[in-house]
Amino acid sequence: MKEKQISFWQWLGPLALGLAAVAGVALLLFRGSDKPLELRVPGTDHAPTAESGTNANPVLAGKLTRSDGQPADLRGNWPAFRGTNRDGISLDPTPLQKNWQTGEPRELWGVDVGEGYAGPAIFQGCVYLMDYDREKRQDALRCLSLADGREIWRFAYPVSVKRNHGMSRTVPSVTEKVTVAMGPKCHVLAVDTKSGELKWGLDLVKEYGVTIPQWYAGQCPLIDQDRVILGTGGPDSLLIALHADSGQLVWKTPNPHGWKMTHSSVVAIDFEGERMYVYCANNGVVGVSAKTGEILWETADWKISIATVPSPLILSDGRIFLSGGYNAGSLMLGLKKVDGKFQAQPQFRLEPEIFGATQQSPILLQDHIFGVRPDGKFVCLTPQGKVVWTSEPGQQFGLGPFMAADGIFFAVNDSGLLRMIAADTTRYRLLAQAQVLKGRESWAPLALAGGRLLVRDLSRMVCLEVGGK
Predict the structure, then answer these.
(1) How far apart are CA 195 and CA 152, in angstroms?
(2) Which domains does the chain show, CATH number per domain?
(3) What percentage of the chain carries pLDDT values higher than 90?
(4) Is residue 274 exposed (0-12), middle (13-18) or buried (19+ Cβ within 10 Å)?
(5) Which of 10, 84, 158, 182 is deepest in the core (most CB within 10 A)?
(6) Per-residue pLDDT tens for 54-110?
(7) Residues 184 and 162: beta-carbon distance below 8 Å
(8) pLDDT grade for 10, boundaries at 50, 70 and 90
(9) Is there a contact between 142 and 158 (Cβ–Cβ < 8 Å)?
(10) What is the pLDDT of residues 28-59, one digit of tens each?
(11) Rounded distance between C-alpha atoms, residue 102 and residue 203, angstroms
(12) How wide is the angle at C-alpha 315 spanned by C-alphas 314 and 316, nearest 5°?
């Protein structure tokens, strides 16, 4: 069914002049091998809007459909956004191939997926993906077999989502008992991990007054202990904690400045005997108590003009590295405790040509920071912000994802070119590369378990054999 088209001027109206101003700093996208394409600004497809006409929570009207897929008998998990510790580093002991011959890495299976950039999670031989079915107009949390990609079950609920540079773009969080996911319009659902039966569901817009971010929700739920932590940015709830099994509210953080939800995901940090959650809202960064949700510290020293996407990177000794696109560059915060109160103070800033990160969060490995900056180069930094190396000329990475495992990085560029790079803190070393996807906008976070790497572009996901033989 074709969507009703809204003209550029009808949609933007009085915002046209503002968009013209930000176009100069908007990101150049890359396509093909490593070639630039077009400027991207929010709202040039359709604006995210809440469901209208009913106060009913659509998640509760969802249905579970079971199929004939079976879990794979493979070890290793990648149970959430950026893996087990949400740091982009695999803990799977499966050895990996360190060079590829012709035809490698081998594609084991592939499936078509709804338009978007939602990444998979892997748990006990199953793949969990938050997808969107345009034909049926449904958000669909899908459980697939890691063995062959066959669907085991899906839980789908009705919601109308129009193309806005893709639809779904979040990664589920999976534990032994519960899987929690967020849909494009800020619907949150929790299901039984094995059966797919619904445990609870929330409509954050209607229940907490959340404003859907431009380009839809990109935040990935955090499950910490037995709680689900979400950065909501509602009028009276900057963050909320829910019981993972029941969805019951445990606490909510006040929102005195009216900060809004972004695409950035919440991360946990332990400092001075206090566990806290760090969240990048639209106009600042906050640290809240894991016990009570109270604000322990906040700063307005970090905000991004268009879209906040990367998550905070946690270093040792209370340091927090923040990075963004749209000319934001980077900022290192340092936490300290003075007279019983926490403070977050800037330690140094980096200009975007030194380091920034438009879409993918950096990785801390071997006491160095690795990431892709806005000019598309893969970069290695010291914790003091000094550039150690950059990728070679002609080797651009665009907005594609990367992860670390077994002494290497897997990195994908916009057009589905997969590169294997040595995790070397002295120089850039490309070990191998292969074209593994033929579509565009290969931006979804990667997932790895049992020697199998999951990679997707705008409309297809493939499973690659990368384990050592």
Answers:
(1) 9
(2) 8-465 (2.130.10.10)
(3) 84
(4) middle
(5) 182
(6) 578 999 999 999 999 999 999 899 999 999 999 999 999 999 999 999 889 999 999
(7) no
(8) very low
(9) no
(10) 333 345 654 444 555 455 555 555 545 789 99
(11) 48
(12) 130
In Å, what is the CA distance from 191 to each residue of 176, 188, 198, 347, 370? Answer: 11, 10, 4, 42, 35
With a cut of 90, say whether residue 419 has pLDDT above it: yes
User: Up-side HSE of residue 43: CA atoms within 13 Å toward CB?
Assistant: 19
pLDDT recorded at residue 2 = 37
What mean pLDDT value characterizes the chain? 90
**Is residue 46 helix, strand or coil?**
coil
Distance CA 22, CA 133 (A): 33
Tokens of 94: 């499966």
Per-residue b/e over 118-151, b at no fewer than 16 CB within 10 Å?
Answer: bbbbbbbbbbbbbbbbeeeebbbbbbbbbbebeb
- The token pair at 238 is 């900057």
**3-state SS assignment for residue 260:** coil
CA angle 109, 115, 118 (to 5 degrees): 70
Q: Do residues 361 and 88 lie in contact, with contact meaning Cβ atoms separated by under 8 Å?
A: yes
Q: DSSP string spanning 293-357?
A: --EEEEESS---SS---SPPEE-STTEEEEEETTTTEEEEEEEEEETTEEEEEEEEEE-TTT---
Would the pLDDT of 318 be above 80? Answer: yes
CA pair distance 411, 402, nearest whole angstrom = 4
Lowest mean pLDDT among 43-47, 151-155, 192-196, 238-242: 43-47
The gap between the terminal CA atoms of the chain, to the nearest Å, is 47
pLDDT in tens, 334-365: 999 999 999 999 999 999 999 999 999 999 99
36 sits in the region (left: phi over 0; alpha: psi -120 to 50; else beta) called: beta
Beta sheet of 408-412, edge-to-edge order: 402-405, 408-412, 417-422, 430-435
Write the CB contacts of 219 (distance below 8 Å, at least 6 apart in sequence): 170, 182, 230, 231, 261, 262, 263, 264, 265, 266
Q: For residue 116, count CB atoms less than 10 angstroms from its CB and return exposed for 0-12, middle for 13-18, buried for 19 or more.
A: buried
CB atoms within 10 A of CB 66: 12
11, pLDDT greater than 70:
no
Of 146, 128, 154, residue with least CA distance to 73: 146
What distance in Å separates the CA atoms of residue 43 and residue 24, rounded to the nearest whole number? 16
For tokens 């998640």, what's the residue?
A: 59
